[in-house]
Write a structure and sequence with these properties.
This protein is mostly helical. It has helices spanning about 5-20, 25, 35-50, 55-60, 70-85, 95-110. Helix 3 (about 35-50) packs antiparallel against helix 6. The chain is globular, with a radius of gyration of 13 Å.
Length: about 110
């Protein structure tokens, strides 16, 4: 099942909040797909573990296991709103840098 345009835009917003503004990723928003969601999901799992934010994300997912593949697609709009509002913040520059370094290329490659 392909992503709707709203899901693609929400995913880009999440990526920009987590990774920062990246023109290489932003230019591919129309090509975002399930592999892109999976790559961002893996990046977020890494960031959540690094920031010890598991309980906060579990609250968004509604108690579901964040380790189960596919959780991001279910809450993509809600997570974007929470991140944009500042209610969820990923603290720790080190965690963010490691996440971006480990997952940026996977996100870019997912559209090809």
């Amino acid at each position: 099942m392909s992503l709707s345009m709203q899901e693609k835009e929400d995913l880009l917003d999440i990526i920009e909040i987590v990774f920062g503004n990246d023109p290489a990723i932003a230019s591919q928003v129309n090509n975002f797909n399930e592999r892109t969601v999976a790559a961002v999901e893996d990046a977020l799992q890494t960031l959540v573990r690094c920031n010890d934010m598991r309980q906060l994300v579990l609250g968004l997912v509604g108690g579901a296991n964040v380790m189960v593949k596919g959780w991001l697609r279910d809450i993509i709009s809600k997570l974007r709103m929470e991140l944009s509002s500042g209610r969820i913040q990923f603290d720790g520059l080190g965690c963010r840098v490691v996440t971006v370094n480990n997952w940026r290329n996977a996100v870019i490659m997912s559209v090809y």
